[in-house]
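RECORD TYPE: inverse folding
INPUT: structure tokens
STRUCTURE:
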């Protein structure tokens, strides 16, 4: 598990308090939750459930629908993001929906 301290600076000299972000040993069963429901034409953040909203978001990104999520939010395949949205991303979402395990290696620790 890695811990990141993210600092903001207005001038490159003074820094605010850090935002502390920790990784997890392995994603939980909702690892393919890429969006929440679409409300008012906008996708909401992931809500902890993998469902048809996630599949629809990936398909809309594949089809390049104007209000689709950014590709980085829905690019589940491969282990290293490749900026290619295709049916494998949908297949991985279905795997997660069915309770399948995270198919890639655990997140790496940073030095």
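DESIGNED SEQUENCE:
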């Amino acid at each position: 598990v890695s811990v990141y301290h993210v600092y903001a600076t207005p001038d490159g000299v003074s820094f605010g308090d850090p935002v502390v972000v920790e990784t997890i040993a392995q994603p939980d069963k909702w690892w393919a939750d890429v969006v929440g429901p679409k409300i008012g034409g906008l996708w909401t953040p992931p809500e902890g459930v993998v469902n048809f909203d996630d599949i629809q978001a990936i398909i809309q990104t594949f089809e390049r629908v104007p209000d689709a999520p950014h590709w980085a939010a829905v690019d589940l395949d491969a282990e290293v993001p490749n900026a290619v949205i295709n049916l494998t991303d949908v297949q991985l979402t279905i795997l997660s929906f069915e309770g399948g395990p995270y198919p890639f290696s655990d997140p790496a620790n940073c030095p």
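NOTES: The beta strands are 3-6, 19-22, 38-39, 42-43.
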